[in-house]
Structure formats: structure tokens, C-alpha cells
Amino acid sequence: MSGAYIGAMRIARFTTGEDPVYGLVDGAGEKIAEITGDPLYTKIELTGQTHLVDDVRLLAPVIPRSKVIGIGRNYADHAAEMDSDVPTEPMMFLIPNTAVIGPGDPVVIPPTTSEVHYEGELAVVIGRMCRDVAPEEVSRVVFGYTCANDVTARDLQRGDGQWARAKGFDTFCPLGPWIETDLDPSGLSLTTRLDDETVQDGTTADLVFGVAELVSYASRAFTLLPGDVILTGTPAGVGPVTAGQRVEVEIEDIGILSNPFVTP
């Protein structure tokens, strides 16, 4: 494999109306070269077919076989706006993989909640089965990074006292638009827009616990499998979103994840 696609190393999952396939997106985010196989598990080869990104439907770039691990209150400014202390260790929770959707897919607000919030986040995609990974070895097990919206039913989060239901509804974990495999995650700008208005404007430089610490910490509790996703937390500016609105999460050097919100 050669050419501009290798330099970009953006892995997308998409469909042209047939079964989902993977592709390599060029640096401009305009073209996608179709590949064979699943890049998390098998050797990949270019098929020779190229599509315009605008002509395909992008899907969630990964559907975790096992789990999505969320991290709570990992930005000091977000902890403050929630009237909470910054945790002394990463605060982890699990999200079912059935919550995952892709770019453009609608987030469905269930009738059991009246207070749904957006939370723009950097997501880490695991590339190798691992356990008890030292922080200095984390780069060896990370496949890449994508954008996430950790949608939360805030009223249920407060009422339940634990977060599985509030963050785990079907469609509550948008991921995309693709996985960037060649990226330094330590100082990326993260912007969330609600109907084109900027509501979150942060940087991953302000993570309380960085990517290496989070992956290492999670691996001491769970065996991490290829395709597992770790959400790294959200900066200040979270707030309500209602049906008919659209949320965009943009992360520097990755791209834009955009999803409309609807009711059933």
C-alpha cells in the first residue's frame, strides 16, 4: 500500500448501500480508498476502488466487540460546573456497545428523560488485547482516536446514582467520523457546537488524567480488547439539547462528528 492515504492513516467504515466496508480517507477528508478486511484484526489491502466521502454514508468507525469505557469529571472546569470535586483517580463507567451510532445518525431522546445533555469528547480506540499495561507502553496498544458525544440523560443520572442507564440508551454514544491512527492526543482543541453556536471550547491539554494514564488504569481493571473505546471526559460547557437540534463535535486533526437529535 502506498500513496497519500498512508500518510493520513484515517480509517473509516462506510457503506455505498451494500454491506459495510472500511477505507482509508485522504488528508483533505474528501476521498476514501476502499480496503479489504477489518484493520483491527486482519491485513488490509487496497481494492482499487475510490469514492468521494460525500457520496458514501459514513458509519461508526468501530463497533466495540466488548465495551465502551467512560471517564467522568476528567476536566477540572467541567467538575466545577457540575459542583463536584476532581477525582483523585479516574472515575470509570461502562456504556453498552448498543449505544454506538455513527456520524449523521439521529440520537433518539427517550420519553423517560426530560433533560438530555451533549458532551463532546476525545475517544481512544484500543488496537490490541491487553491487560495491566504500563503508561509508557500504552502507545503500543492504541489503534487511534476519534470524536465522541457522550450523550447523557442528566435527570436520570442524578436520580439513579450510577450512570449506566443515563449514558447507555440506544444511540447515546455517537462516534466518528473516522479513526485517526497517527496523532499526538496531548494538546488537541475540542469544540462542540449546538446548532452552529459554540458551546464547548477546550483542549485535551487540560485532561486531569491523560490518555496514557487512562488506558493503563482501565487495563488494570478490565482486559481491553481490539475495538474497545475509552471516552476521555468532557470540558466545561455541557448543556441541554432538544429534538430538532444538531450537535457537532470537532477535534483538531481528526474531524467533525455531527448528529441530529430526535424523539421517537
Descriptive report:
Strands 1, 2, 3, 4, 5, 6, 7, 8, 11, 12, 14 and 17 form a twelve-stranded mixed beta sheet that branches. Strands 9-20-19-15-16 form a five-stranded mixed beta sheet, with no helix packed on it. The chain has 264 residues and is mostly beta strands. The protein has two domains: 4-59, FAH (SH3 type barrels, Roll); 68-262, Fumarylacetoacetase-like, C-terminal domain (Fumarylacetoacetate hydrolase, domain 2, Alpha-Beta Complex). 12% of the residues lie in helices and 38% in strands. The chain has helices spanning 4-8, 76-81, 154-160, 164-168, 211-219; strands at residues 10-15, 21-25, 31-35, 46-52, 57-59, 68-72, 91-95, 100-101, 107-108, 116-118, 120-126, 142-149, 152-153, 173-180, 189-194, 197-203, 229-231, 239-240, 246-251, 255-262. Mean pLDDT is 95; it is low at 1-8.
Write a brief caption for the model:
By secondary structure, the protein is mostly beta strands. It is built from five helices and 20 strands.
What secondary-structure arrangement, pairings included, does this model have?
Elements (H helix, E strand, L loop, with lengths): L3 H5 L1 E6 L5 E5 L5 E5 L10 E7 L4 E3 L8 E5 L3 H6 L9 E5 L4 E2 L5 E2 L7 E3 L1 E7 L15 E8 L2 E2 H7 L3 H5 L4 E8 L8 E6 L2 E7 L7 H9 L9 E3 L7 E2 L5 E6 L3 E8 L2
Parallel strand pairs: 6-17, 8-14, 9-20
Antiparallel strand pairs: 1-2, 1-5, 1-14, 2-3, 3-4, 6-7, 10-13, 10-18, 11-12, 11-17, 12-14, 15-16, 15-19, 19-20
